Amino acid sequence: MAERGRSYRYVGPIELKAAVRPGDGGRRIGSAADFDGWITEQSAAELAEPFTFVVGMGGVLRLAPRRSEHVACAGGDMVRSAGEISFMREADRWTVSEVSNQSTGYCPDVTSRAEVARALDAAELQRPSGFTHEVVFRRCPDCQERNIVREDDFVCVFCGSDLPAAWNVDPTT
To answer: pTM of this prediction?
Structure first.
């Protein structure tokens, strides 16, 4: 089995994590049958928007409506990746049309795409080779704010300090 990547602790607003209740969490999608059961429950309006996803510590995909918080989708737990995902019907099967690591609560590194690929392969979902939209997250070493790096400009938008080249959002991992 391939080596597992890093895990991500929730680093977003504490009040969002405090609101997570037992039983919260996105739908576990560990197989093609799980996905088939879940997708038939989605309305046309829901399918028109991306869904919130996490890959849990066991490597299983969890899906929730887009307006769900990632920490709620994860049941408050650590994750292997998190972001947004869209599906489309292609011939006789569902495929992943878009997938990103856009989660300001977990701020996963772009390298977490390997965990997403494993989870989607387990659910037998055809997918892009990587994230269709990569978000680069960094924590400013001076002011400690979380940043989204845009256009390779590794400068903190809050204080103007240089941001590190390597992922550093959660110093405890």
So the answer is: 0.94
Q: Which residues of 44-53 are buried (b: 16+ CB within 10 A; e: fewer)?
A: eeeeeebbbb
Please tell me whether residue 42 adopts helix, strand or coil conformation: coil
Q: Which residue in 119, 16, 123 sits closest to 75, CA to CA?
A: 16
- Three-state SS for 117? helix
Q: Could you say which DSSP state residue 29 is in?
A: E
Categorise residue 114: left if φ over 0, alpha if ψ from -120 to 50, beta otherwise: alpha
CA Rg value for the chain: 16
pLDDT in tens, 55-112: 999 999 999 998 899 999 999 999 999 999 999 998 889 999 999 999 999 999 999 9
CB 107 within 8 A of CB 133: no
**Residue 83: how many other CB atoms lie within 10 Å:** 27
